[in-house]
Amino acid sequence: MLETFGVPCHSANPEKGVNAAAAMCGLIEAILKLPPTRDPRMVGDGILVLTDIQSAPYPGASVVPHYCRATFDRRLLVGETRESVLQPIEAIIAERKRLDPTLNARVSYPMGSATCSTGETVAAERFFAPWWFAPDARVLRVKAAMEARGLTPEITGYSFCTNGSYYAGEAGIPTFGFGPSREDLAHTVDEHIALSDLFSAVDGYLAMLHALLD
User: Fold this and answer.
1) 137-148 and 195-213 are packed helices; what angle lies between their axes, rounded to 10 degrees?
2) Alpha-carbon distance 142 to 188, whole Å?
3) Which domains does the chain have, with CATH numbers?
4) Which of 42, 64, 88, 105 has the smallest C-beta neighbourhood within 10 Å, fewest atoms?
5) b vs e for 179-198, b when ≥16 Cβ sit within 10 Å of the residue's Cβ?
6) For 73-116, what is each residue's pLDDT tens digit?
7) Among candidates 122, 103, 120, which has minimal Cα distance to 111?
8) pTM for this one?
9) Do 84 and 118 form a contact (C-beta atoms < 8 A)?
C-alpha cells in the first residue's frame, strides 16, 4: 500500500496546497517501470500490479486532495522478504523526495482482519509467504493414481496466492494443490467452470486420498 500526504486548499488556488493525488501519479509511473524479480522454477515473475487508487476528500469538489492511497498486488517469490519487497519502492520515494522536498509518502503492507465464528477478530499483515516444494515421491504417487483414473494432471506452480502461503510458506508443511478448470479464468467477467471438470476433480480428490492413505 502506497500513501501520499498533501495539504488541502481550494482548487482555484492550487499553489497554496500540496496535491496528494498528483504526487501519487508520479510515484506510480516510476513504480510500474520497476523490472520484476524472477524465479527460474515454475513460480514465475514477481509481478507488481496496481489494483486501486483512492483520494480524500472524495468527491473532491473544488478541493485539492490532502491524501491519496494506491494498492498494489505483488506476486512474491521464494527467498523474498518483507524488507526486500518494499526496498525498491522505498528507493523511488527517497529519490523523489530528494527532487521534491514537499513530497510526503510512505509504503507499507495493509492489515487484514476477519471475524471468527467465536466472535473474535483476527488481524494480520497482508504478507503471504511464498513457497516451493520440488515434486517428491508422494506427489508422483498421487499423479500416477489420478492417471490411473483417466485424468491428465500436470505438475506446475500456482501463479496466484492460496492458503498454502501459511501451511507451506510459514508452517513449512509439505503442500500441493489440486483443482479443476484453469487459473486464467479466475476473477474474470465470465468466470465459470465446466461440470465435466468439476466431476473429474472429484475423481482426482478420491485418487489423492487413496494414494496417500492406503
Assistant:
1) 130
2) 30
3) 2-112 (3.30.70.360), 137-213 (1.10.150.900)
4) 42
5) ebeeeeeeeeeeeeeeeeee
6) 998 888 888 999 999 999 999 999 999 999 999 999 988 888 99
7) 122
8) 0.79
9) no
